[in-house]
Design a protein that fits this description.
The complex is a heterodimer of chains A (389) and B (377). With 389 residues, chain A is mainly alpha-helical. In chain A, 73% of the residues lie in helices and 1% in strands. Chain A is built from 21 helices and one strand. The chains are: A mainly alpha (389), B alpha+beta (377).
Chain lengths: 389, 377
């Protein structure tokens, strides 16, 4: 089996390998690379760069450029922008007393590559300098939530309330509520706030609707979840998080053609490409193998760099696309050490089940029991595994 | 080795033009007092640093890259410092080439250096792009003799140091013996053709050919004697040609060798069905063993060992091969001895078993001599 997999991998990629030796282009006109879009944002970024070169102490320009770079990185799923943003902040982080805003932006970038511990450190440093920064508290809450520290997240959300718009503050609170056995309460809080805050910023309302949809899903009410997802998707520009959660919802309901419609062309972010490939595989579409190959290449490239931020997705790849539950379980375990959201628990339990190693699921089962997290899918899986371990 | 190759293939597969973080790929090969290698740097990163896209149309052509070739080379060399035996050993850049990676095209800077003395220790100081992109990584592969090392350069880890380059084996003799012996055991374990050949010769070991057909031998001693003779002859022969091939005294086309090995398995198996040679099988084992040795050698030849290491590697590898082979014989022999006493043994093991082996060998033979794929895929 291993051999078949190995050789098919080789055959899949060998066309690329054949012409992979360095060459001397034959003509000056040969197009080698299409560079990122030279649009209005790009022009603004270049202007800011030269402005900073002339006046390195202009924090406003640095902050604007960093924000633009992060936004562009998110919009294009191109991680190079995050690297540029980090380099841009570096002088301000190395200062004797770093600028609190620089620390918060740095934390965002660290969080983005799943370096949660250093991100929390940066936020604590920022909060020591600026204890009332709502943004720092919100960022801290988001990380604590991902790490499964719901008490901490709850306290950070409470601290963030002052100076934070109601919708954002309540959505922040709903997250830890929903994970500690108070799912109904979280649902009510979100519904109520969404009804009252029609003027809140689009991104915040989209976030709240997404969260509500996830809560409905975990309550085992797919009809309500569908309505909430539709609301979230009605805003212009769906976030990658929303797309991936909704794709998971559709995959769960075996609505594969809809997944393909939703994610067609979204091949840049690994998480979205993974879900697209899953749907294509189910429908036996020709594109599936190309996309599986692309994912494999990206994970391989990440491993060469020593990156570990894709472990949850990689686990799912090995479980559902490469048919290697043992590797999937290894990755899911490593991921669990870093993040503990319901989706992380789910892939862990699925991998443990597929690898016929229910005993190794014990940490997740304990976590589910202790936190009181409610999730119908998780519960069902935990019951079958709990009975066997 | 294969894993690394697979990774490289995966990375160079070009179907997907993905976004990924910035990496450069630095490959260096150290031998005696010289170093050579290549450094693949993404054109996109070079454009970000140096502004290669002169006309600003977002399309980078070879003309634009070629015009900046000297700048690129100077920029690259300014961000990589090399010291051999604690003395600076400046790198030279050759003519710029282009290569494709998973996230686009890269400039390939050929590198070379001639150091004052044979390189025993090496330090690298890497600082490319760290000021522009904190997520940039330099991925290094350092080859010296048969040893390969990899390292990742990051803004936090800009310096790396290696001892024991070229000539001095990085690992101790005992570790290397274990490594190569393990490789030998593994090779014989996955080399079904060698094992099936031996098995075909051993299947009738506990039988004696008489006019009315196969009869069990009386006494285990004669059986053991024959097995020892066959295994020893095979071992002696393949060790001989393995050594000659690895020391590059004998060299035959590998396709021919592989086909001849398949043919030997076929003949040995057919001999059990239509007996031709029934006595003194050790001569068969010896004769064909010579060819099997050439096949076994291919693994070591692929490793491209340096002359200093080759004898020790050969010895350890051969030891592993023999150990693996003995383990298989030790496992199979009691079974052969036990089942030979049954009346159905000649029909089942000798005929059906050998027919299966012959069938497989025939497919190998076709594949290897015609260079086609029937079952391997």
């Amino acid at each position: 089996m291993k051999c078949v997999l190995f050789i098919s991998c080789y055959l899949l990629v060998s066309p690329g390998f054949v012409d992979a030796s360095p060459y001397l282009p034959q003509s000056d006109a040969e197009l080698l690379e299409t560079l990122p879009a030279r649009d209005e944002t790009d022009r603004r970024m270049r202007d800011l760069q030269s402005q900073i070169r002339n006046r390195p102490n202009d924090w406003q320009a640095v902050q604007r450029l960093t924000t633009l770079l992060i936004e562009r990185g998110r919009a294009t799923s191109d991680p190079r922008y995050f690297g540029y943003a980090e380099a841009n902040l570096q002088p301000w982080l190395n200062a004797a007393t770093p600028h609190p805003q620089a620390l918060i932006l740095h934390a965002t970038l660290l969080q983005n590559r799943h370096a949660f511990a250093p991100a929390l450190q940066a936020l604590d440093q920022a909060l020591a300098l600026q204890p009332r920064s709502g943004l720092a508290w919100l960022s801290k809450a988001a990380i604590q939530q991902v790490q499964g520290n719901f008490t901490g997240a709850w306290q950070s959300c409470l601290a963030a309330r002052r100076g934070t718009p109601t919708l954002t503050a309540n959505a922040c609170l709903a997250a830890p509520l929903s994970m500690t056995g108070r799912l109904k309460e979280a649902q009510g809080l979100l519904q109520q706030t969404l009804a009252g805050e029609a003027e809140a910023p689009v991104a915040d309302r989209q976030w709240a609707w997404t969260m509500l949809a996830e809560i409905d899903e975990r309550l085992g009410d797919p009809a309500a979840a569908e309505v909430a997802y539709r609301q979230a998707l009605a805003f212009p520009q769906a976030s990658a998080y929303l797309l991936s959660t909704y794709a998971d919802f559709l995959l769960q309901q075996q609505r594969y053609p809809e997944v393909i419609d939703l994610l067609k062309g979204e091949t840049r972010a690994d998480g979205l490409l993974l879900r697209l490939a899953l749907a294509e595989r189910r429908l036996q579409r020709a594109e599936a193998s190309e996309h599986v190959q692309a994912l494999q290449a990206r994970f391989a490239a990440g491993r060469l760099r020593g990156e570990t931020s894709h472990q949850a997705e990689e686990a799912r790849f090995y479980l559902e696309l490469a048919g290697n539950p043992a590797e999937a379980l290894r990755l899911a375990e490593a991921n669990w050490a870093v993040q503990r959201e319901p989706r992380d628990a789910l892939i862990f339990l699925q991998a443990a089940k597929a690898a016929a190693a229910p005993a190794r699921a014990a940490p997740v089962l304990r976590f589910i029991a202790e936190s009181g997290v409610q999730d119908t899918r998780l519960q069902a899986l935990a019951n079958t595994l709990g009975a066997r371990s | 080795m294969i894993r690394i190759l697979l990774l490289v293939m995966l990375v160079t597969g070009q179907a997907a033009h993905a976004h990924k973080s910035s990496d450069s790929y630095l490959q260096l090969h150290a031998q005696d007092d010289s170093l050579r290698g290549r450094w693949d740097i993404a054109l996109r990163d070079l454009d970000y640093a140096l502004g290669l896209d002169r006309n600003g149309d977002g399309r980078l052509t070879w003309g634009e890259v070629r015009a900046a070739a000297e700048t690129i080379k100077a920029y690259a060399l300014a961000h990589l410092a090399l010291a051999a035996n604690d003395t600076a050993c400046p790198l030279q850049a050759g003519d710029l080439l282009i290569d494709q990676h998973s996230d686009g095209r890269y400039a390939v800077v050929p590198l070379s250096a001639r150091c004052p003395k044979p390189v025993h220790s090496l330090s690298l100081d890497y600082s490319l792009f760290f000021d522009l992109d904190r997520q940039h990584r330099g991925l290094l592969t350092l080859q010296s003799g048969d040893a390969q090392q990899t390292a990742i350069f990051s803004p936090e880890v800009r310096q790396q140091h290696w001892n024991g380059i070229s000539g001095e084996p990085a690992a101790g003799a005992w570790t290397r013996l274990q490594d190569f012996a393990r490789e030998g055991v593994w090779h014989i374990w996955i080399g079904y053709d060698h094992l099936l050949f031996l098995l075909s010769l051993l299947l009738p070991a506990a039988l004696i050919r008489e006019s009315e057909g196969w009869q069990p031998k009386t006494g285990f001693k004669t059986t053991l004697g024959e097995v020892v003779a066959v295994v020893s002859a095979f071992t002696l022969a393949h060790s001989l040609t393995l050594s000659l091939a690895v020391l590059q005294i004998v060299s035959l086309p590998s396709r021919w060798v592989e086909a001849a090995i398949a043919a030997s398995v076929l003949l040995a198996a057919l001999n059990n069905i239509v007996p031709c040679v029934t006595h003194r099988k050790y001569w068969v084992a010896f004769g064909f063993g010579l060819i099997h040795g050439l096949g076994i050698a291919s693994v070591l030849l692929d490793m491209q060992l340096s002359p200093q290491n080759i004898v020790w590697a050969l010895f350890s590898f051969n030891l592993g091969v023999e150990l693996g082979q003995l383990a298989v014989v030790a496992a199979v022999l009691p079974l052969i001895g036990y089942f030979s006493r049954y009346r159905y043994y000649p029909a089942v093991a000798m005929h059906a078993g050998s027919a299966a082996i012959a069938g497989l060998a025939l497919i190998w033979l076709a594949e290897r001599s015609l260079d086609i794929n029937l079952i391997s895929g």
